[in-house]
Amino acid sequence: METRLQSPFLSTTTTLHPPLLPLPLYRKHNKRKLLPKPNTDKTHKISIKIKSSIHPDPWSLSDGNFSKPKPRFKHPKKPLSDDNARRIIKGKAQYLSLLRRNQGPHAMTPKWIKRTPEQMVQYLNDDRNGHMHGKHVVAAIRTVRAMARLREGECDMRTVMASFVGKLTFREMCVVLKEQRGWLQVRDFFAWMKLQLCGGGLLFSPVQFSMDRKLVPQWSHNGVLSYRPSVIVYTIVLRAYGLVGKIKLAEQTFLEMLEVGCEPDEVACGTMLCSYARWGRHKAMMTFYSAVQERKILLSIPVFNFMLSSLQKKSLHGDVVEIWRQMVAKGVAPNHFTYTVVISSLAKQGLYREACEIFDEMKNQGYIPEEVTYSLLISLSSKNGNWDESLRFYDEMRFQKIVPSNYTCASLLTLYYKKEDYSNALLLFSEMERYKIAADEVIYGLLIRIYGKLGLYDDAQKTFEEIERLGLLSDEKTYLAMAQVYLNSRNVEKALNVMEAIKSRNIVYSRFAYIVLLQCYVSKEDMSSAEITFESLSMSGSPDAGACNDMLELYVKLDKREKAKQFIVWIRKNRVNFDEDLCKTVMRVYCKEGMLSDAEQLMDEIERNKLFKDNKFIETFVKALHGKNMTSENVEAFDTMALGLLITLHLACGDSNKMEEIVKILIESPGGLSVVNKLATNFIREGNISKAETLNACIIKQGCRMETETIASLISLYAKQRKLEKAKEIFMLVPDYPVPGRWVFNSMIDAYAKCGKPDEAYLLYTEAIERGHDLGAVAISIVVNALAMFGKHKVTENLVRKSLEDNLELDTVAYNTFIKAMLEAGKLHFAGSIFEKMLSSGVTPSIKTYNTMISVYGRGGKLDKAEEMFNAACSQGLSMDEKAYMNLIGYYGKAGKRHEASILFAEMQEKGLKPGKVSYNIMINVYATAGLCLEAEKLFHSMLRDGNQPDSLTYLSLIRAYAESMNYSQAEKTIKSMQNDGIAPSSAHYNLLISAFAKVGLIKEAERIFKELSETGLNPDFVCYRAMVRCYMEWGHAEEGIGFFEQIKERVESDRFIMSAAAHLYKYTGNEDEAQSILQSMKNFGIKFLPHLKVGSKLKTT
Known about the structure:
Blueprint: H1 82-100, H2 117-128, H3 135-146, H4 157-160, H5 170-178, H6 183-195, H7 206-212, H8 231-243, H9 247-259, H10 266-278, H11 282-294, H12 301-313, H13 317-330, H14 336-348, H15 352-364, H16 371-383, H17 387-399, H18 406-419, H19 422-434, H20 441-454, H21 457-470, H22 476-488, H23 492-504, H24 511-524, H25 528-539, H26 545-557, H27 561-573, H28 580-593, H29 596-607, H30 616-625, H31 640-652, H32 656-668, H33 672-686, H34 689-701, H35 708-720, H36 724-731, H37 742-754, H38 758-770, H39 776-789, H40 793-805, H41 812-824, H42 828-840, H43 847-859, H44 863-875, H45 882-894, H46 898-910, H47 917-929, H48 933-945, H49 952-964, H50 968-980, H51 987-1000, H52 1003-1015, H53 1022-1034, H54 1038-1048, H55 1056-1068, H56 1072-1085, H57 1097-1101
């Protein structure tokens, strides 16, 4: 937990003004002369104007509260105020910077800046010799710096600086303080400075300081006021602490500055903010920044840049945008760096339009954006589908002569690849060569894919070889891209070689890699493993019809005709008992090979088998082969699959006349065309695409065409088999029909959706609507569901809104789809408005509608609305299912409404709905979370009585109930009980008991449970380890905790809490070396240390 400043500075009170201290009057003097005695009248106050001589750096003040007065001149000038001094200094620096900018060696540099190398050496020597500040100042600097070689406590600053007492003015002490390099020296010297209230060694009284808390200046023997509280010196100290991360010391110093009456200005506040930002204390930084805003202190742009950069490094882009908007509101002029950081955060937040507006503002201010800014906007606009904007940004880059990076080129190549604009993609590669931009593996992978799309397989192979030669080949995606190119070029061996190369590189196959590998083996037609397995099966006995059918279907699928025929001979020779499936597969082979005599012989044998009596398939084949009763009058008695095989058989035998006769008979008979379409539909339903295509060609040859419903079914079949291109080919026939019909469009839209092409489905839908087709509620439901499944929530929302605005006629399913899509998109308010639209349109909601609305209101925390949906469903007489009840019960449990959940659960049982295992688990967990072990136990026994066997989650909830109610013995018995029931407990079950013991300080009991966990053979997880370490630490068992950590440290090196707790335990026992070793290990792993953990915190509390 970060330390917060407890000061009126962070309150809402008015600005604190430092009290005016009584200042003595002193005059210009010569060092040889003594000053007259100052006026001691306490009522006489004279204000003097001070001019600081300390040179400012970016984070120290250039003005001070009080210092040595200016010498008296013959014609004294009216001194400027501190604010005017800073303004003039900054203005002059900006003017000189403007003169030198972009002018090269001819820059108009003032003479006092132009130094030769010899003059620069002399300048440095003068600094070392004390010609700038004085030798006594240089000596003081070196004396204080020398203390860095000593350990803390070996010397006293008062002793070391004894010879300098009364010799250093305030300005000189500030110089010494500022020149220190270590924070310890800054701290000690600053403490010494505060003692130098009197230049003559007459130190202030410590008692007086502790009582008054104010440093009252006094006169020394030489009249020099050596120290006075000033915002300058405090800012120097704050900067020193901030550079090394001593945030707590910096906060204490800031509070001290307020207490002594120094009002912080923008530089002091900026120093604190930069310190917070430098060390990632963003929460404290934002709190302090809020206080600065309340004080109406206007920070400089470097401070804002420091804050914005720090927040962006931690991906706190929302805070970056908020601070930016506050800057703009206050009129702070941003610079180039500010614009770059803000645009980057806006881009990463997805605020595309705002990022573009600020980008245009940046250019209008005369700043040239960097390459990274252009790259982010190109990538963001490409992701948002604004391809023209991406290309416009790239054209601006080229006009500004900015060389694009690899990331920019990769974004543009991806854009061209999606647009299938391959010519511009190749042109971009030429530009990369001209600009000498080295391509990385991602760019090479995109190039391989583009070559594959264009059919330039040789160029793709050369690119792949070049990647390997350059040593860039390491990503699995690149290998798979090349393997797919080889598969598209039907070069299976090379594809397999690529897959073997992945394995040789010890790259673990991903899911996509296994898909590609499967494609390789299918293309290679490797059947050896299947044949070896079948031979092993035959040695143990005669295979059954199912095994033979599987093997035969494999040969048929791989088109191994000879093997298939030999295998059929083997089946008949070994008298394998045929079933209908094996018979159909064998007849498929016979018909495809045109083996008419073998088919007749097999049909005669099977016809005599009583098992096939009255079999429609066999009867159709027998009648057709023997020419019996093949008339159009009894077409309904035929088996469609048998007719299809007969058509294939006649085609294979070259007897197209008989095949056409069958088709012609069906077409010419009344309703015969419907029978043909039904036959094609049956082929499609069975997945026999080839038969459907053959029949389609025959129908076209007869001068007819399939019905639109049949075309739609064929497209749907292609969609199920993910053959999108085939579906497109069939769909291209639709425009030739007079009226395509909604079924064809709906099937094609569904094909795009099932093949993972939601954008194409959406485009086809919009095209059909523009052409005046009424696709109905089914099409819009398919498109919305597809877009929602692929996370395209913005497009989905726009489509739903347009459908509602156009008052499309929607059914219950469509409204359910709309509401569910908006629920998944998080548009809960819009989902509610859709439901209201549904009711106002007169569409009756279903139980699914109300169940979805319960989720909408429950997720939004509107339980009263969720209850209304549940009651409305009940009042309309809908049959409430278990899912609806448990949906509302689950939201009751999350809201802590256990009583309401219990009542609803009882009501569900009263309505005759028997809870299942999942329902019982949800309700038991509701009781367990509240520590109601008796209720949970009763419900558990009810679950057993209803015949629901408990699972691991059931026992987990039961153990939680006993642990929360401190019934530890019963919790242990529950673990034993689940073991007796054959359910192995996991580490999570033991963790509940260990955490419960640790919470109340039963260390020995927690150790015993941990030992039991280890003895069961389970590996404790991090939750278990954390519970044990927390137990030892919070209850002050440091030695036991260290011993436990030594046992597990090799397994928990990546856990932040355990490592931090171990460091605290070692420090507590005085073992600083081990503590530092752990801290170094955490630093190496990039783990942040938790400094606020306390050993024995529970002991202190009790």
